Amino acid sequence: MPTHEPDRRETGPSLERILGLIDPGMLDVVVAPRGTGVPVTDVVLHDPGEEREDDGARAAAGLILLAVGVEAASPEALDVLRAADRAGAAAVVMRPGARGPRAELVEAAGRGRTALLTRRPEQGWTEVLGRLRTALVHSDPAGTTGVAGLRPGDLSGLANTVAALVGGAITIEDPQSRVLAYSRLDHEPDPMRRLTILGQEVPRWRVDELRASGFFRTLWSTEDVVRLPADDRYAERLAIAVRHGSEVLGSIWAAADGRPLAEDAAAALRTAARAAVPHLSHHQTWGLAAARAREGAVHALLRGDVRSAREAGVTADRPYAVVVAEAYDGRGEEAYDGQGTSDGRGAGAPEGRGAGRAGRRVLDVLALQAAAYRPGCVTARSGRRLYVLVPAGDGEAGPARTLLASVHSVPRDVVLAGAGPVAAGPAGLPASREAAELVVRVLRERAARLPTGEVRSAVAAYDEVVPEATVLRLLDRVEPLWGSLAGPVHAMVEHDRVHGSAYGDSVTAYLDASCDTGTAARRLNVHPNTLRYRLRRARELFGVDPADPAVRLLAEIGLRLAARRSDRPGSP
Question: pLDDT tens, 534-549?
Answer without folding.
Answer: 999 999 999 999 888 9
